[in-house]
Specification:
About 30% of the residues lie in helices and about 20% in strands. The protein is an alpha/beta fold and about 350 residues long. The radius of gyration is 20 Å and the shape is globular.
């Protein structure tokens, strides 16, 4: 199947190359907002941890005394145009209207204004006019070159940084690896002592002049479906839980759950960004009854989309955070330079 898709990948590569050349040579131009913009992006499709990284940066900037806002496309949302997801006091939209990840960020960052807009300059302009942020975090912005960024942070999965090395649709790459030369910092998520677990260090040649940061996910606790109570993993070790997920890397979620000493009896996985309608809810409830499960364990990304009707099934979501395990000083230096207006990064 991959071989059959290769011609389409070559066409995709040609299109990406032409577009990047047009921006590099200023045939296409960017628009600039009046405050610093920090972009969090990746090189592959899904599953590198952009949302935890955005949350980490927002919390880091808050400790620096900076008023921060978040700008996102709102992937998978049913609304159009510019939408305020959070006004910095409470969420203003649900996952159907805004997309699952912006709503998740709004719940984790209640004091941070969040706007979604396919046209990022328009959405960023609204953030500036209504909320006057010191800095804007651009979610999933590496390929969106229409908006000027003062700092480009690119995430790579340490276990599979380049997939099979091929561009869409034969692989997971959204751009060639050489595009990393545009990055100001690369963060390897899911890092370990064997970092980086890549098939060829030669593929990392573009990173020689770019600061490298290592990060890992840290499970915190489990939150109830209604969000008003928490539990520790130990409380589920004698249960009969089934797993539920609609994320890019469901196997990683299951691996994390098992590492916490919890033995799931089944794992019902859906495609990334799955919306849970009546058909999906019936399937979830049916499997729950068939297995005689007593708990459903899910991800925080799925949690924001699940309706209260599932509350009798004892649903709990795993809350995680991003922890920098090496290179945090480098990252903090870049952030400080950016918000001080001193960044001279590559765009």
């Amino acid at each position: 199947m991959t071989a059959l898709l290769l011609p389409f990948s070559w066409v995709f590569r040609a299109g990406v190359g032409l577009r990047n050349t047009a921006f590099d040579r200023a045939w296409l131009t960017t628009q600039e907002l009046p405050c610093p913009v920090i972009s969090v992006g990746n090189l592959t499709v899904g599953g590198t941890g952009k949302t935890p990284m955005v949350i980490y940066l927002a919390e880091k900037l808050r400790t620096m005394g900076k008023k921060t806002a978040i700008l996102s496309r709102g992937y998978g949302r049913k609304s159009r145009g510019t939408l305020v997801v959070s006004d910095g006091r409470k969420p203003q939209a649900d996952s159907d209207q805004a997309g699952d990840e912006p709503v998740l960020m709004a719940r984790r960052l209640p004091r941070t204004p969040i706007v979604v807009d396919k046209v990022r300059f328009r959405g960023g302009s609204l953030l500036v006019e209504q909320f006057h942020p010191d800095v804007i975090i651009l979610d999933d912005g590496f390929q969106y070159r229409w908006l000027h960024r003062d700092l480009d942070i690119v995430l790579l999965d340490a276990a599979r940084p380049f997939s099979n090395g091929r561009l869409l649709p034969a692989g997971w790459l959204r751009e060639p690896v050489k595009s990393l030369k545009r990055a100001d910092a690369v963060v390897f998520t899911r890092s370990s002592d064997q970092f980086p677990a890549v098939e060829s260090m030669e593929r990392l040649a573009p990173l020689k002049e770019i600061p490298i940061v290592k990060a890992a996910y840290q499970p915190l606790h489990w939150i109830s479906l209604e969000g008003n109570s928490t539990r520790q993993s130990e409380e589920f070790r004698n249960c009969k839980p089934m797993l539920l997920s609609g994320i890019a890397q469901p196997n990683d979620f299951e691996k994390t759950v098992r590492s916490l000493g919890i033995g799931p009896i089944a794992h019902l996985s859906f495609p990334d960004h799955q919306a849970y309608g009546s058909r999906e809810l019936e399937r979830i409830a049916g499997l729950y009854r068939t297995l005689r499960a007593d708990t459903i364990l899910t991800t925080e990304k799925d949690w924001v989309k699940l309706p209260a009707i599932l509350q009798p099934l004892n649903v709990w979501a795993l809350r995680i955070s991003l922890r920098i395990i090496e290179g945090e000083d480098k990252l903090e230096h870049l952030i400080s330079e950016c918000v001080a207006g001193k960044s001279g990064g590559k765009h």
